[in-house]
Design a protein that fits this description.
mainly alpha, two-stranded antiparallel ribbon, binds zinc ion
Length: about 575
C-alpha cells in the first residue's frame, strides 16, 4: 500500500476517552498479569491509532499547507492534542502503580517503565498554569524571531533570508549582512531579555512546586535522562576543552590562511573555501537514484529499507509550492512506516536528508517490531547517534554525488561537526549556570555567556560588534528558550558518531554489526545501555575523546591534502 492510500479518520475524542478510561479501570482491577497485559494491549492499539491519525494529519498538512481538509484536521490536533496527552498520563500512572511492575518491565523493558515514571515526576496538575505560561513565552520568542523585517539589498528580509547573505563569498556583503542581522537583536534586546528572564523564573517555580531544588533537576527528568547527571556532563565538557578546543583553533588558523585573511573574524567563520562549497553534480532525480544505489550496496538491511520507502512513497523530498519548510523523519505506527519530509534546495544540504534523516528512518524501520510508542525511537540523546553516524557510514559513496568535489564535501562536513562541539558545550554550561542561579540579573547572564565563549571559542573575534561583545549571541539560539538543556544531546550523539567513523575505517563488518544492533533495540534501552550495545566508549569516560582525536585529525588532514592536489 502506498502512502496516499493510508486511511485517515478523525477520532472522536469523547468515544475514545470512554473506552480509554474503562480500559484503565480494567488494567487497575486485573487479577493477574496476563489479564492486565490483555487490556494494556487493547489500550495500546487505541493509542497507536490516535498516534497514526495525528501523524498522518501533520504530514499531509506539511506537504500541502493549502489543503483545507488537512488544515482543519491540524487545527483539531492542536486543540485536542493536550487532551490525548492527559489520557496518556493516566496510562503512565496505571503502569507505574501496577501490581505487576516486574512483569511489565520484563515484557516492555525497564526503560519503558522509567519513561512512565519520568512523565509522572515531571508533571502535577499544580503546574498546569506554569506550563501554559512557559508555552506562551516560547511562542512569544518564536514570534519575535519570525517577525523580523530587515531592509537589506533593496528588499525586506526575515532573519533566515538575511542569513543567506551572511554566507556570501564577498566579504563586504557578509560583513554588512552580519551587522544588519545582529542589529535586530540590539534593537530588541530588552524584549529578548524579558522573555528569557520570565522563562527562567517560571521554570524555577515549576521545579520548586514539584519538590526539586532547581530547574536543572526537573529538566533532566523531562528529557528522560535516567542514567547520567550534571556532574558527568561537566566531565564531558572538560574533555571538549582539553582535546577539541585546541584542534578547532588549528582549524580556524588554517581557514584564515585559505581565505587569505590575517585573522578570522566572526563574519568569516562559516566560509570554508574562497571558491565556494561542494555541490551535488545533478538534480533531485540524480540524488535519489544514487541514493538507491548507495543503500543497495551498503547492506541487505538498508536495501530492504530503502526499497520499502520507495515502493510505498514514504519520502516527500522536493520543494513544492505550499509545502512547509524544513525537514524531518517521523513514524506512522499502524503501517509500521517511517516517513521522510524535506525541501531539496540544490545545495550540499540535500545530502543530509539522504544520510541523516534516512539514518533516523532506518533505525525506526529496524525496530518497527516494538509495539509501545514511547520506545519506538530512543530518547533524544541516543536518537541522533543513528542519524549522525549514518552521515559517516555513507562516506564511501559520496563520490557518486559530489564527483570532483568529494573531498571538499567531506572536509567541510567533518570540520563543521568538530567545530560544533565547543559551541555545543557553551550552550550547555550556560544553562547550568543560569538555572543554578535563577536570581542573576539580565546583564550578569550576558557576562556569563561571553565568558564561556572566551573559554571554549577563544578564536572568536566580534570586531566592533558591541551587542555580541556584550554577550547577546545566545538570543539567536532557539534551544535555550524553547528546549532547555536539550542541546548537549547533539554533542553526545556527535561524539558517538565519530566513534562510528573510526569503527568503519578499522573494521567495516564489525562497525556495521554494532550499528545494526543499536538500530534494532530502538528505545528499549537507556543512553548508556545503547552505548554499551554498540560497543562504544561512553562520552563521559575520559578515554573517549582520546580514542577519537587522532582519527579526526587524520581525516581532516587527508581530505585537505586531496583538495590541494
Ligand atoms: Zn536528527
Amino acid at each position: 500500500m502506498k502512502f496516499k492510500d493510508y486511511e485517515y479518520i478523525r477520532p472522536n475524542y469523547d468515544e475514545i476517552k470512554e473506552s480509554f478510561l474503562s480500559l484503565l479501570v480494567q488494567i487497575k482491577n486485573a487479577k493477574g498479569y496476563d489479564e492486565q497485559n490483555k487490556y494494556i494491549k487493547e489500550l495500546n492499539s487505541i493509542r497507536k491509532t490516535i498516534e497514526t491519525m495525528s501523524t498522518l494529519a501533520s504530514i499531509r498538512n506539511s506537504i500541502n499547507t493549502a489543503d483545507e481538509f488537512y488544515d482543519r484536521e491540524q487545527n483539531y490536533w492542536d486543540e485536542y492534542g493536550p487532551l490525548y496527552t492527559e489520557l496518556n498520563t493516566d496510562f503512565y500512572k496505571s503502569i507505574v502503580n501496577s501490581k505487576f511492575k516486574e512483569e511489565i518491565k520484563k515484557e516492555y523493558s525497564e526503560q519503558f517503565y522509567k519513561i512512565c515514571e519520568c512523565a509522572l515526576k515531571s508533571f502535577s496538575s499544580e503546574i498546569i498554569p506554569d506550563l501554559q505560561e512557559e508555552n506562551k513565552l516560547t511562542s512569544k520568542y518564536t514570534k519575535l524571531m519570525a517577525s523580523a523585517k530587515i531592509n537589506f539589498d533593496g528588499k525586506e528580509l526575515n532573519l533566515s533570508e538575511l542569513y543567506k547573505y551572511m554566507l556570501s563569498s564577498d566579504r563586504e556583503i557578509r560583513g554588512k549582512a552580519s551587522k544588519a542581522y545582529y542589529n535586530y537583536f540590539k534593537e530588541h534586546e530588552s524584549e529578548f531579555d524579558e522573555i528569557y528572564d520570565n522563562l527562567v523564573q517560571v521554570r524555577h517555580n515549576m521545579a520548586q512546586k514539584l519538590g526539586f531544588n532547581n530547574f536543572i533537576e526537573l529538566a533532566y527528568i523531562r528529557l528522560d535522562r535516567t542514567d547520567y547527571n550534571p556532574e558527568m556532563i561537566s566531565n564531558l565538557r572538560k574533555q571538549v576543552l582539553e582535546y577539541i578546543v585546541p584542534l578547532c583553533s588549528e582549524l580556524y588558523d588554517k581557514q584564515a590562511k585559505r581565505l587569505n585573511l590575517d585573522k578570522l573574524m566572526y563574519i568569516d567563520e562559516n566560509i570554508e573555501f574562497l571558491d565556494g562549497n561542494a555541490t551535488i553534480k545533478g538534480d533531485s532525480k540524480y540524488i535519489i537514484s544514487n541514493g538507491i544505489k548507495m543503500y543497495n550496496e551498503l547492506s541487505k538491511e538498508t536495501k530492504e529499507f530503502f526499497d520499502f520507502m520507495i515502493e510505498r512513497d514514504l519520502m516527500d523530498l522536493e520543494t513544492k509550492h505550499n509545502k512547509s519548510t524544513g525537514g524531518y523523519c517521523t513514524y506512522i505506527p499502524n503501517y509500521k512506516a517511517p516517513f521522510i519530509f524535506s525541501n531539496f534546495n540544490g545545495t550540499s544540504e540535500d545530502m543530509d536528508v539522504l544520510t541523516h534523516e534516512a539514518g533516523h528512518a532506518f533505525q525506526i524501520y529496524m525496530s518497527r517490531h516494538i509495539e509501545m510508542q514511547e520506545i519506538n525511537f530512543p530518547t533524544l540523546d541516543s536518537c541522533e547517534i543513528h542519524s549522525m553516524s549514518m552521515e559517516f557510514i555513507t562516506y564511501p559513496w559520496m563520490e557518486n554525488f559530489f564527483k570532483e568535489d568529494t573531498d571538499k564535501y567531506k572536509f567541510a562536513h567533518l570540520c563543521s561537526a568538530i567545530k560544533f562541539l565547543p559551541y555545543g558545550v557553551v550552550v550547555d554550561e550556560f544553562q547550568h549556570i543560569i538555572y543554578e542561579n535563577p536570581q542573576m540579573t539580565k546583564d550578569e547572564r550576558k557576562e556569563v555567556w561571553r565568558s564561556l565563549e572566551k573559554k571554549y571559542l577563544p578564536h572568536r573575534d566580534y570586531m566592533d560588534n558591541k551587542i555580541l561583545e556584550k554577550g547577546c549571541y545566545f538570543f539567536k539560539q532557539g534551544h535555550i528558550f524553547e528546549d532547555p538543556f536539550y542541546y548537549i544531546d547533539y554533542v553526545l550523539a556527535q561524539i558517538c558518531a565519530f566513534q562510528f567513523l573510526k569503527k568503519m575505517e578499522e573494521n567495516k563488518e564489525e562497525g556495521w554489526r554494532d550499528y545494526l544492533e543499536i538500530c534494532k533495540i530502538g528505545g528499549t534501552k537507556s543512553f548508556l545501555q545503547i552505548i554499551d550495545t554498540g560497543n562504544l566508549i561512553s562520552p563521559f569516560d575520559y578515554k573517549c575523546m582520546e580514542s577519537i582525536i587522532t582519527v579526526l585529525k587524520n581525516n581532516v588532514e587527508a581530505f585537505e591534502n586531496n583538495i590541494k592536489s
